[in-house]
Amino acid sequence: GMLFPQHEPRPVGFWMKNTFIPLDMVFIDRNWRIAHIAKMTKPQTLDVVPSGSPVIAVLELRGGEADRRGLRKGDTVKVAKLR
């Protein structure tokens, strides 16, 4: 997946204009908990997928991956530091 960190918690919206496959968008709050999951977003559209609340990051995963991994609202997200 791809992680999109924000400088500070804020409501965000993503679209899928140049994306050719469905994605799951995992919106992460300031406590690194899942605030919202938008599943199987529609490819190649300008439809805005909103976070619904202020978030500190958005994790994009292949469509269906959130269900395959059992991700749920309220789950804690851990991010490893890369060197």
Structural class by sheet pairing and helices: mainly beta
- Strand line-up of the largest beta sheet: 1-6-3-4
Spell out the helices and strands N to C. Answer: EEEEEEH
CA(first)-CA(last) distance: 18 Å
Give the percentage of residues in beta strands. Answer: 35-45%
The number of E-state strands comes to 6
In short:
The chain is mostly beta strands. The protein has one helix at residues 65-68, and strands at residues 2-10, 13-14, 23-28, 34-41, 49-50, 55-62.
Describe the structure.
- The protein has 83 residues and is mainly β.
- It is 5% helix and 42% strand.
- The protein has one helix spanning 65-68; strands at residues 2-10, 13-14, 23-28, 34-41, 49-50, 55-62.
- It starts with a strand and ends in a 15-residue tail after the last helix.
Spell out the key features of this protein.
42% strand, 1 helix, two-stranded antiparallel sheet, mainly beta, 83 residues, four-stranded antiparallel β-sheet
Describe the secondary-structure layout.
Elements lengths: L1 E9 L2 E2 L8 E6 L5 E8 L7 E2 L4 E8 L2 H4 L15
Antiparallel strand pairs: 1-6, 2-5, 3-4, 3-6
